[in-house]
Amino acid sequence: MEATAKTKYLKGSPRKTRLVIDMIRGRNVSQALSILKFTDKRAAGPISKCLNSAIANATYKAEQQNIAIDPDGLWVRTCYVDMGPTKNRRRVRPAPQGRAYREQRHYCHITIELTSEDKPLSEKEQKRADAAAKAEAGKAKAPKKAAKKAEPAKSKKAKEKPEAEVTAEATEAAASVEEPTAETAEAEVAAKETAAEAVEDQAETTEGGEEKSEDLERQ
């Protein structure tokens, strides 16, 4: 919802009136009225009347269109002061060194436009919103990073445990290897002894055979 109010042929120079109108630009309606109420400038009264007229125009327009609006939700979107006519008075004012300055009476036109649309964020508010969004994103990423850091730690522990188990198995295997070596040595000694006994038996049998053959030849 948008509404506009204008005040024309207001006594006063546009330059002095702009000093007041600049204070309410972009403000909420209630804030603008409070600022104008406590502003010690001659243009503050006519500007507050123009602002109240814009609020009344907005409510009337909403009723005509069967739209429900909150007057406190309105804010000043645009407001400016235009230069009005200068009163043609044939009067002069005394000036230094005997000169005379022509006396002029300035007029100005005030225009105020209100709207109930969402107010855009200022630069500071936008920066704050961006910073808050980044902070929330960082908080959301923090648990993921912690979980990722915890996973390698677990994997390291898991790796360390098998290594310990492997070392234990290696020591057991080494011990088991050492024990059979003694047994094998005894077995080798026993085998050598049996082999020597077999050789002696063979030698005895061969000697006995030769003796028998010699006896047979003699006969």
Task: Please describe the topology of this protein.
Elements: E1 2-11, H1 14-21, H2 29-37, H3 44-64, E2 75-87, E3 92-94, E4 100-102, E5 105-115, H4 123-218
Antiparallel strand pairs: 1-5, 2-5, 3-4
Helix pairs in contact: 2-3
Describe the protein in words.
The chain has 219 residues and is an alpha+beta fold. It has a domain at 2-120: Ribosomal protein L22/L17 (Ribosomal Protein L22, Chain A). Helix content is 61%, strand content 18%. The chain contains 4 helices and 5 strands; from the N terminus they run βαααββββα. The protein has helices spanning 14-21, 29-37, 44-64, 123-218, and strands at residues 2-11, 75-87, 92-94, 100-102, 105-115. The strands form 2 sheets. A 3-stranded antiparallel sheet has the order 1-5-2. Strands 3-4 form a two-stranded antiparallel ribbon. The longest helix has 96 residues, at 123-218. It is rod-shaped, with a radius of gyration of 56 Å. The protein starts with a strand and ends with a helix. 11% of the residues are buried.
Task: Provide a brief overview of the structure.
About 60% of the residues lie in helices and about 20% in strands.
Which descriptors apply to this entry?
219 residues, alpha+beta
- The general outline is rod-shaped
Give the mean pLDDT.
Answer: 80
Reported for the largest beta sheet, the result is:
3 strands, antiparallel
- Strand composition percent: 15-25%
Q: What structural class is derived from the secondary structure elements?
A: alpha+beta
**CATH architecture type of the domain at 2-120:** Alpha-Beta Complex
Q: Write out the strand line-up for the largest beta sheet, numbering strands in chain order.
A: 1-5-2
Q: Helical residue percent? A: 55-70%
Supply the number of helical segments.
4
